[in-house]
Every structure is written in structure tokens, then in C-alpha cells.
Description:
alpha+beta
Amino acid sequence: DHVIHRAVEVPLKRLVNLLEKKGGTLKVQDAYRHAEKNRIHQTASLHCEGRAVDLTCEKTSLSELAKLTWQAGFDFVLYEVPKKSGVHLHCSVKRSPDAPVPPRPAK
């Protein structure tokens, strides 16, 4: 589940570099989820396209990590407190305007 869309690669690499300077270690808790096998996220979730990652960090607070994710170039950052898993940051990149919208899985 650690596959990502190519649009996530640049901000993720930037984030790793920013964290290395501060002595932090990035942890990817979740990334791509195949839409038909997805049991965690909503069907329209960017996780189903590989455009979203859930992150935590060792030796860096989530508030500091959030600042660095914006600086690294993520388009959306959300502090999540899910019922069944640990607190993390949901970070994603938006679709480019000319990108096709993926089909929704049949019910």
C-alpha cells in the first residue's frame, strides 16, 4: 500500500529532505488503496488514485510536520484522528485540470 502517483513524488522527496535537516524520520502510514479492495477510505478518496498519503514522523511534532508538508508542496494537509488507527497527517496533491477522472467502482 505504499504506491504513489507520480505527482506525489516531488513533494514527498522535498519533505524527506526537509525532515533530514531537522533530524526527523518520515513514516508513511498509508498510501494507495485499490478502489475495489478499499475498506478504509471513501470511494472518491485520493488514496484510491495514489494522490494521498497518511504520514507521521519520529522526532518531529505533527504541527511541525504539517508546516513542512505545505513547504514541500502538498496541496492539502489535514490532521486526522481516526477511530481505529493512530493520529496522523493526511496529505494529498490535486488532480491536474486536464487529468481524466477515474471511474467509480460498480456497486
